[in-house]
Amino acid sequence: MNTCDCHHKTDVRFSDYYSENILTWCTNCGNYGIQAAIKRALVAENIPPCRTLLCFDVGCHGNGADKIGGYRFHGIHGRVLAFACGASVANRKIKVIAFGGDGGTLGEGINHLVSAIRGNYDITFVLHNNLNYGLTTGQASATTKSGIKMNSSPDGVTSDPIHVMNFVFSLNPSFVARTFSGDVKHMSGIFQESIKHNGFSFIEVLQSCPSYNHMTPHQWYQSRVKDVTQMSGYNFRDIKAARQAAEDLEVQIAIGVLYQNSKSVPFMQRQANRLKVSGDLVDEVKVFPTEKLFDTFR
């Protein structure tokens, strides 16, 4: 993937990310707001589509992969972070943003989340947490609350859910934020901060799912979220305070930039064999003829 020096470099518009393809999510799905917010953030940060790679996992959110401008990749279930981290390592001139659901990320792909956080790869990751597998019509995911009846759990979920923030904070992350799919302005601001961060940015989006998640609808979150900037004396540099603030998921749910390590050093800047190399890995790729290889199979 190559970058270009197009006119968008100094004049990025919302229309640059326009797609003629029609969005097909359910009415009132939180994905509409998330997609709008990421566009707003990229435009506000003056990042053109030719310098952006948007990576989508399998899930409801992934149905938006062909409905936004820019370089896009639609991966297989739970594996989007592996690709996104590799793309970031290969070409640091491209801003890499990955999207995944709670099912694929904390189920099939939880090992990739662990590696991405520990490696501190320089990407932004947006976790669409709607507490279920929405694309496959409402099966319980790793974040579905215990006791809730879902399509594949008619008697109620019997396992305790993974507390997303407890899990992420246990891995010593460099940037952690939480936002709400019903507030596009707030999401846009959080996405901007994550894009500017030097290292792995983890964002949990508390997302409504009008079709299958009836336990936490839009109004439920709206009456409970509170930005940490409104909490007296909150210090987003204090990881212990951040973890404590993120604990409550029922009464006062903390949103905003929960934690950021300003001294974060991304993966590639820690590799001794690359410190004196000025270019990126993508610049070192050479073209090799494959005719002789194919001839051996004829």
Automatic annotation (TrEMBL):
Q: Which UniProt keywords apply?
A: Oxidoreductase
Domain Pyruvate ferredoxin oxidoreductase beta subunit C-terminal, by residue range, is 209-271
Q: Which residues form the Thiamine pyrophosphate enzyme TPP-binding domain?
A: 58-205
GO molecular function list: oxidoreductase activity, acting on the aldehyde or oxo group of donors, iron-sulfur protein as acceptor; thiamine pyrophosphate binding
The record ties this protein, via InterPro entries, to:
2-oxoacid:Fd_oxidoreductase (IPR051457), PFO_beta_C (IPR032686), THDP-binding (IPR029061), TPP_enzyme_TPP-bd (IPR011766)
Alphabetical GO biological process terms: cellular respiration
Lineage: superkingdom = Bacteria
**What is the name of the protein in this document?**
2-oxoacid ferredoxin oxidoreductase
Task: Look up and give the organism this protein is from.
Answer: Candidatus Curtissbacteria bacterium RIFCSPLOWO2_01_FULL_37_9
